[in-house]
Specification:
Elements: H1 10-17, E1 20-24, H2 28-41, E2 45-49, H3 52-61, E3 66-70, H4 79-88, E4 97-102, H5 107-114, E5 120-123, H6 128-153, H7 157-170, H8 175-188, H9 192-205, H10 209-221, H11 225-238, H12 243-255, H13 259-272, H14 277-289, H15 293-306, H16 315-329, H17 335-354, H18 360-374, H19 378-391, H20 400-412, H21 416-429, H22 434-445, H23 450-468, H24 472-485, H25 490-506, H26 511-523, H27 534-548
Parallel strand pairs: 1-2, 1-3, 3-4, 4-5
Helix pairs in contact: 3-4, 6-7, 7-8, 8-9, 8-10, 9-10, 10-11, 10-12, 11-12, 12-13, 13-14, 14-15, 15-16, 16-17, 16-18, 17-18, 18-19, 18-20, 20-21, 20-22, 21-22, 23-24, 24-25, 25-26, 25-27, 26-27
Length: 549
C-alpha cells in the first residue's frame, strides 16, 4: 500500500520524528503497512496494537501524540468506543490527534464517531501521499497551537486566553480555531460578555455553525431562552445534521418549561445519530418526566444496548429499563404485557451477572417484586418482599434511591403505612437534598402506576380550569374523581378543600361541606414538613379550624 514518492522534506520528517504514534487495527497486515508508511514519513516511535483494550491500556501508561484507529475492530468494540473512552478518561491531551481510519463511510458511523470529535478521517485504501498530506497538515497545526493546548490541559484558562490573543495576529491561518477556542475559554470562566463578543464578531463576518451554537449557549446562560431557542431552530433547519444544536435546543426548551417539545427534539436527534448513548439516556430521562413510558422504555433499551461496549455502561441503565418495563406491564394480563414483564426480569438477570455490586441484588429483587405483583403473581411477590426486608441496609445507611424504590414496591403491595413511614424517615435524613425530596413528594402524591397518574393529572387540570372559570361544582367533582385514583395526593386534597371552603362561604354554610374538608386534611396528617405543600396544608387547616369554631 506504499508508493514510491520522493522522501519528505527535512522539516516534515523532523515533525513526524518527534511524535509518539499508536496504530490500532485488528488486521496485522494493515498495522504493518501503516508502520511502514509512517516510517517513510519520518516517524520512528510507533506502537501497534490489535485490540481496543490494548490501546486503552497503552494510553493509560504512555503519552501518545497521534492515534490512528480503525473503526471496525471486531469483537464488538469499535473506534467510536475507543475514542469515547479515551476522552472520558482524559487519556488524550488537547494536543493529541485522533484519526478514524475506515473503509466504512455510512452516515450512521460518521455521525456516531463525530459525537466525540475525532480530528479527522482517513478512508481506506490509504497510500503514503494521502497519509503524509492529511496527517502532516494536522501535525503542523498541532505544533503551532501546542503552547495554548498545554495551558488548557493544565486548566490555566486565563493564560490560554492570553496566548490565543497573542497568536491571532501571528497565526492568521488558524484564526477560526483560535476564535472558537477563545469563545469556549471565556464561557468556561463565566465571562459571558467576552464570549458573546467573540461569537458575534465571527458571525458578523461569516455564518459558522459553531459560532451560532456558542452564541446560543451564552444566551441561555443569560436567561434569554426565547431568543436562543429561535436561533437554534434556524440553525438546525439550515444544518440538520449538526447534533450539538439539537442538544442545546432541547436544553433551551426545557428552560422554557416545554419538556414535551424538548423530548421531540431529542427523538429527532436520536433518529439521525442512533449510536449516541448519552443522548438516548437523556431522552429516556426526559420521556420519563413526561410520563411517556413507551418512549422512555425504548430509549432505555437502546441505552442498554449501546452500553455493551461503552465506557458509559451502567447498572443504573438496566434498573431504569426494568422499571419502565414494570410500569408498562403493571396490571395488564395481555400477551404483550407478559412479554414486557419477562423482558424486565431478563434485563435484571443480565445486570446482576454484568456488574459487581452488593446492593444490586437487592435493587433487582425490589423491582422483580413489583413485576410479579403487576402480573398477579402475589405469592412470588410476597416471597421476594420478605427477602428484600432481610437484605436491606439499616435505616441510617439506606441509600435514597433504594429506599424510594422500595417504598414504591410497598405501595404496590398494599403496605401503605410502611411505605409512608419509610419515606418520612428518608425525608428527614435527606432534608437538604431537593432532588430526593422531590422524588419523595412525587411518590407520596402518586403511589400508583403511570396510567393512573395520567388519569389523575388530567382530572386535576380539568378541576383547575373549572375553578378558574368559576364553576365550583365541576371543579369539586373533578378533584373528587382524581382523588379516587390517588387519594393521598397532597395538592389534589388541598385543591378540593379550597373549592369546598369557597362553596361553603358562598352557598349557605352547609356543615357537611366542612366535614368533607376535614376528611381531606386528615388524609394529610402524616405529610412531612419538608413537603412543598406543607405550608399550604397548615394554612388551610387553620382556616378550617376557624370556620368550625
Amino acid at each position: 500500500m506504499t508508493d514510491a514518492l520522493s522522501p519528505s522534506p527535512t522539516s516534515a520528517i523532523a515533525a513526524f520524528a518527534k511524535l509518539n504514534f499508536l496504530v490500532l487495527d485488528d488486521f496485522e497486515n494493515f498495522r504493518l503497512s501503516m508502520r511502514q508508511m509512517l516510517r517513510s514519513c519520518g516517524a520512528n516511535r510507533i506502537e501497534l496494537v490489535g485490540q481496543a483494550n490494548q490501546a486503552i491500556q497503552y494510553c493509560t501508561y504512555n503519552p501518545v501524540d497521534v492515534v490512528l484507529c480503525d473503526y471496525n475492530l471486531g469483537g464488538g468494540r469499535n473506534g467510536q468506543h475507543v475514542l469515547e473512552e479515551l476522552r472520558h478518561k482524559k487519556l488524550l491531551r488537547r494536543s493529541s490527534l485522533f484519526l478514524m481510519v475506515t473503509a466504512e463511510t455510512s452516515k450512521e458511523m460518521v455521525m456516531g464517531a463525530r459525537e466525540y470529535q475525532p480530528d479527522g478521517y482517513l478512508t481506506k485504501p490509504i497510500n503514503r501521499a494521502m497519509l503524509e498530506k492529511r496527517l502532516g497538515a494536522l501535525i503542523d497545526q498541532r505544533n503551532a497551537l501546542l503552547p495554548i493546548n498545554r495551558e488548557i490541559d493544565r486548566e490555566n484558562y486565563p493564560e490560554a486566553i492570553s496566548q490565543c490573543l497573542q497568536a491571532l495576529p501571528r497565526q492568521p491561518r488558524y484564526k477560526t480555531w483560535l476564535m472558537k477556542t477563545l469563545g469556549d475559554l471565556y464561557y468556561r470562566l463565566g465571562d459571558l460578555a467576552h464570549a458573546r463578543k467573540i461569537y458575534e464578531d465571527v458571525l458578523a463576518q461569516r455564518e459558522l455553525s459553531w459560532a451560532r451554537l456558542g452564541l446560543c449557549r451564552v444566551l441561555l446562560a443569560n436567561g434569554s431562552h426565547d431568543e436562543a431557542v429561535e436561533q437554534l431552530r434556524a440553525l438546525i433547519a439550515k444544518h440538520p445534521d449538526y447534533m450539538e444544536g439539537y442538544d442545546l435546543l432541547a436544553e433551551g426548551l426545557e428552560k422554557q418549561g416545554r419538556p414535551v417539545r424538548a423530548q421531540k427534539v431529542l427523538e429527532d436527534a436520536a433518529e439521525r445519530s442512533p449510536n449516541a448513548l448519552l443522548r438516548h439516556r437523556q431522552l429516556a430521562e426526559l420521556a420519563g418526566i413526561n410520563q411517556d413510558v413507551e418512549t422512555a422504555t425504548s430509549a432505555w433499551r437502546q441505552t442498554v444496548s449501546l452500553g455493551t461496549h461503552s465506557i458509559h455502561d451502567s447498572s443504573a441503565h438496566y434498573l431504569a429499563l426494568a422499571q419502565s418495563l414494570s410500569d408498562l406491564s403493571d396490571g395488564d394480563t395481555s400477551e404483550e404485557a407478559g412479554q414486557q414483564a419477562a423482558e424486565a426480569l431478563a434485563v435484571l438477570g443480565r445486570m446482576e451477572k454484568r456488574f459487581e455490586d452488593d446492593h444490586l441484588s437487592v435493587r433487582s429483587a425490589i423491582i422483580q417484586c413489583r413485576v410479579h405483583a403487576g402480573q398477579g403473581r402475589q405469592a412470588e411477590a410476597s416471597r421476594l418482599l420478605a427477602q428484600v426486608r432481610e437484605s436491606l441496609p439499616e435505616d441510617d445507611q439506606l441509600p435514597a434511591d433504594m429506599g424510594i424504590d422500595f417504598a414504591r414496591t410497598l405501595f404496590r403491595l398494599g403496605q401503605e403505612d410502611d411505605a409512608k413511614t419509610l419515606l418520612k424517615g428518608l425525608a428527614q435524613r435527606f432534608s437538604d437534598d431537593p432532588d430526593v425530596l422531590q422524588q419523595i413528594e412525587s411518590l407520596l402524591d402518586e403511589p400508583v402506576g403511570f396510567r393512573q397518574k395520567l388519569k389523575a393529572r388530567a382530572l386535576n387540570r380539568d378541576g383547575i380550569q373549572a375553578f378558574e372559570s368559576g364553576d365550583l361544582k365541576a371543579a369539586a367533582e373533578a378533584f373528587q374523581e382524581a382523588l379516587g385514583v390517588v387519594p393521598d395526593h397532597a395538592a389534589l386534597n388541598l385543591n378540593l378543600v379550597q373549592v369546598l371552603i369557597k362553596q361553603y362561604l358562598s352557598g349557605g354554610r352547609d356543615a357537611a361541606v366542612l366535614k368533607r374538608c376535614q376528611t381531606c386534611l386528615d388524609r394529610l396528617g402524616t405529610l412531612p414538613e419538608q413537603h412543598r405543600q406543607y405550608r399550604r396544608y397548615r394554612a388551610l387547616q387553620q382556616k378550617l379550624e376557624g370556620l368550625l369554631s
